[in-house]
Amino acid sequence: MSIKVVVIGGGYGGLRAIEFLAKQKNIEITLIDKNPYHYLQTEAYGYIAGRFDIHEIAIDLAKWCEGFKRNVNFLYEKAIFIDYDKQRISTQNQEISYDYLIVATGAQTNFFSFIEGLRENSYGVKNLMRAYNFRKEFENLIYRNLQNEEINDSANEINLAIGGAGLSGVEVAAEMAHVIKSYAKTLGERAKMIKIVLIDASETILPGMSPYIIKNTHKRLEKLGVQILTSAFISNVDKTTIYFKNGDELNYHFMIFTGGIKASNLNTKQEGTINRINQFIPDGQLNIHNTKNVFAIGDCVEVRDKNEKILPPTAQIAEKSAEYVANTILKRTAGKETEPFHAEVSGIFVALGGKYAVGEMFGFIKVKGYWAYLLKKAITYAYFLGLHLRINAGYKNRIKTDV
After folding, report:
1. Which CATH number covers residue 236?
2. Higher-confidence residue: 388 or 40?
3. Model pTM?
């Protein structure tokens, strides 16, 4: 008899868990997602700045699932509620039963409600449509500047504001600044009108990262001409101006916000313990709601290391937690003992515009510049290639089925 495993969410964690579990012939997997695609959020910086196209950051989930050629099905619907007692998930149109459930619903941009006007006047990168709209704004700005059109009659500078100097904010700022610098020969002096302003309430960029990464990232951003505002608290935002608590003001053309996340709204409908940003707080084996067959992985769950330090919500941690949960499910179905989840960040790379990056691995390998870029590119390419090989298999499988 097949074991039914349901995965809610086709992000990094959800797909990695399926890759592991699909190798077992006795497991039937259903992937549920409200979107028909997998969005490579780690590459959002390049997409927004126009270096990557849509086919390089989005993967068709139906074709990907078909690539397994057996026991993996995709349901393009929104999960609404989980009934832990009956072991069922309610979607918009049906109910799906499960033996094991993996919640991997990810997170969305947290447009802080205490900053008036933030949500209405800024873009996020967690949502593909918002990233697409921001890309259009950026490309339109470059085009109009190329055409020598007046963009703002009252300002000599065109400020592109980025709220949040964490990993996403820094990478977007660097890539946009690099693109603008690359256009300098075409735009001439007009290129100097476009300014990237990176804003964060913390005392430094990339809070929580190592001094090596912070120092070298700061140098690179300055070289690219990015204006960095730290210890800068935004009080409110309107269509043209960002207002700071110290009384300063910044006129801007458009704004992207990467300053915080909150977990999917599905979490708030559960009775299980959640933290202040809606993330599930699991037990030591990533189970939620006092169950042994429901797990949470990725950005929707608060994950801690062996020292009880909260780990950053990255693709790396999502994949590590996915591998752990997949192995735990296999052990439990076989009646074996399972160990608590322990993870740590193996390394981190920061893309800093063009063919430049800063990275650190295993706490002692430090690299910057072109070599760091190559390492980051290799890691991303390996992941992307794996997805596409699965998609190609799904496409061929669809052709054979239709014939």
Report:
1. 3.50.50.60
2. 40
3. 0.90
